[in-house]
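Model it.
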Amino acid sequence: MATSPRARPVGHLFGLGALYVVLATYAAAVVLPMVWLFYTSLKNNQEIFASAWKLPHVPHWENFVSAWVRAGIGRYFLNSVLVATISVVLIILVSAMAAYALTRFRFRGNRVIFYAFLAGLMVPSQLALVPLFFLVNGMGLLDTYAGLILVYIAFSLPFTVFVLSGFFRTLPHELAEAALIDGCTQIQAFWRVMLPLAKPGLVTAAIFNFLGIWNEYLFALVLISSERLRTLPLGLANLLMVTHYENDWGALFAGLVMVMIPTLAVYCLLQGQITKGITVGALKG
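Modeled.
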């Protein structure tokens, strides 16, 4: 039975309405907890337990000062910035070169190396904790930034090489060949021509790696023992334990807000690059 011309717009509008309701519900489920977390960080202990859902009578901005200075969140924050920045730069650098070589050149063992990277995606991080501990300890890098960064690089390479390989595969290789004809070496063609073209994919991979490393807890817990080297997730866990004894819940919520702000800022500033990277790869693939 044919659908009447008038029924189609009604069904289309109903479908759009249902879609908007689902999206609005999902947005509320994501945004409202963050809003609640922010205004709760401005309460004192009495308000947090007596009126958990109400706005604070007077904002207690000193909670952020207490978390940043007294609880040491500022030091942990800078440690995380250092570790995440160095890790992401090295991950993107190594992965881009590996992905380009695997997609641009054909050599014996090419597929074996590529599938070895893919196999790394199937290794659970929890399964590798004990061997990694002894390996890093044997290298003399236990309780150092270098040891933690090397582990982050090793566990991020499979995903990043996989993503960038798909992106480099979509780029026109004729441009690299034209650069070679103009006198560039293979390395110069990579740095000057192909790498700039892959910018959307590089930014997308960098963002996902940064968010993962920024929030990573397990490796840092096992490989870092010195208080001065703790990253932000370790610092927050320590603040939670201290809060149970000192009863400073406002500082704990303030610390959680400090952890959340950089990830939100990175996503809001670069969400266009994420969308562009994923869309370009999908359309060209």
